[in-house]
Design a protein that fits this description.
Blueprint lengths: L3 H13 L9 E3 L6 E6 L2 E7 L12 H14 L7 H4 L3 H14 L3 E5 L2 H14 L5 E5 L4 H10 L3 E4 L4 H11 L4 E6 L11 H11 L1 E6 L14 H4 L8 E5 L9 E5 L1 H10 L1 H4 L6 H16 L2 H20 L11 E4 L3 H15 L1 E2 L2 E2 L10 E4 L7 H18 L6 H5 L1
Length: 408
């Protein structure tokens, strides 16, 4: 039997559905972000990054780089293994303390990525609660969906941000244990969950709450604690999950909760127990980013200014931006072929890198370009982006002034 034929057939299907993913070979240079070098088939070329999740440019901040370099020189590169076998490196302990403080919780637990923290924590928490019903928002990230699936118990999906539907499901669940799982900020549309109302329902019907803040930590709230901090409900949420790989510019995921919840996940979660810990240098750099953003408001304020300017300039140019009140700037295309073509034209003809977003990340027919401004994007770069998008839209025959979405 030739097994490769199965894999070739699976890849052919992706090509046929225009969902085959191509990764650009990009090299960032500290101090020049958002400029980078694209190692194209024709050789190196300078491009501007417009879809990085390094939202605040902290990946190149001097404090963050210095903490990483100094720690690596002092203690070495690797963590030495799992925490169960090799012990916990001290910078990791310090990082978990910073995270617990950031969210006003008793404890925090670090994972190798935000994906792993969701997948592992949701499954473990639900398994430890007998007869637990998970109530999950319809637009939750794949990592949360996988966590819900791995829990193995009953689950119900409530319509996105629909509090009436969530309350119906809570009433129907009766007195059994319930876990509400949602994101605070949904990264594809840029909309925000009504966290206060979710907390009200959780209190009324005796549910536990789990909120993913990966696209909001560092970005919102007086100290960068996220949407929950901004909305004054951080203390009402049982488990807050976040990442160090976006606004903090580093690597890793985490949960922050009560000491009992964190210790239970630490003690039972295979995705934590059986994987190597993050290296000390990575932990030290993340701590430096968190400490800086707890006290510095410049990055958050300037970032919101840049996001607002991008939206204003693109709307003026007639580019179909999906409206929202956050830093995400989704531009609707509505076709997988056109979306990929638009991305390719922007890169090749304009030196602008924006990755196409296709199914299954978004529903079919809602393919888009997802633009993420940073404090490092100048007015000149914003204007060049608008001109490039208009040129590409005209080349592809895409409609400008997408009035249906703009009116929404």
């Amino acid at each position: 039997m030739t097994y490769d034929r199965f894999f070739s057939a699976a890849l052919a299907l992706l090509h046929e559905e225009r969902r085959y993913r191509v990764f650009a070979d990009l090299e960032r240079t500290a101090g020049r972000f958002p400029h980078a070098t694209w190692h194209s088939p024709d050789g190196p070329r300078s491009v501007v990054l417009w879809c990085s999740n390094d939202y605040l440019g902290m990946g190149q901040h001097p404090k963050v780089i210095k903490a990483m370099v100094d720690t690596a020189v002092r203690v070495g590169a690797g963590a030495g293994g799992t925490r169960n076998i090799a012990g916990t490196n001290h910078p990791l302990t310090q990082l978990e303390a910073e995270l617990a403080d950031l969210h006003g919780k008793e404890a925090a637990l670090l994972f190798t990525s935000g994906y792993v923290s969701n997948q592992t924590s949701i499954a473990t928490i639900a398994k430890l609660i007998p007869n637990c019903l998970i109530l999950s928002d319809a637009l939750n990230h794949n990592s949360m969906i996988e966590g819900v699936r791995r829990a193995g118990g009953e689950r119900k999906i409530f319509r996105h941000n629909d509090m009436a539907h969530l309350e119906e499901l809570l009433i129907a669940a009766g007195e059994r244990p319930k876990l509400i799982a949602c994101e605070s900020l949904y990264s594809m549309d840029g909309d925000v969950a009504p966290l206060a109302k979710i907390c009200d329902l959780a209190d009324k019907y005796g549910a536990m709450t789990y909120v993913d803040e990966v696209h909001a930590v560092g970005m919102y709230g007086p100290r960068g604690g996220g949407i929950a901090e901004r909305d004054g409900v951080m203390h009402r949420i049982d488990v807050l999950e976040g990442t160090l790989a976006k606004a903090f510019g580093c690597l890793g995921g985490y949960i922050a909760a009560s000491a009992a919840v964190v210790d239970a996940v630490r003690s039972y979660a295979p995705g934590f127990i059986f994987t190597t810990a993050l290296p000390p240098a990575v932990c030290a750099s993340a701590s430096a980013a968190i400490r800086h953003l707890k006290s510095s408001h410049w990055e958050r304020d300037h970032h919101q200014n840049r996001a607002a300017r991008v939206k204003a300039v693109l709307n003026t140019a007639g580019v179909p931006v999906i409206p929202n009140d956050t830093h995400i700037v989704p531009v609707m295309v509505g076709s997988p072929e056109k979306c990929k073509e638009a991305s390719d034209l922007l890169l090749v003809e304009h030196g602008i890198y924006i990755q196409p977003i296709n199914y299954p990340t978004v529903p079919r027919g809602t393919e888009r370009l997802r633009i993420t401004p940073t404090p490092c994007h100048s007015d000149a770069l914003v204007d060049a982006l608008a001109e490039a998008l208009v040129d590409v839209w005209r080349q592809l025959g895409l409609p400008l002034r997408y009035r249906t979405l703009a009116a929404g």
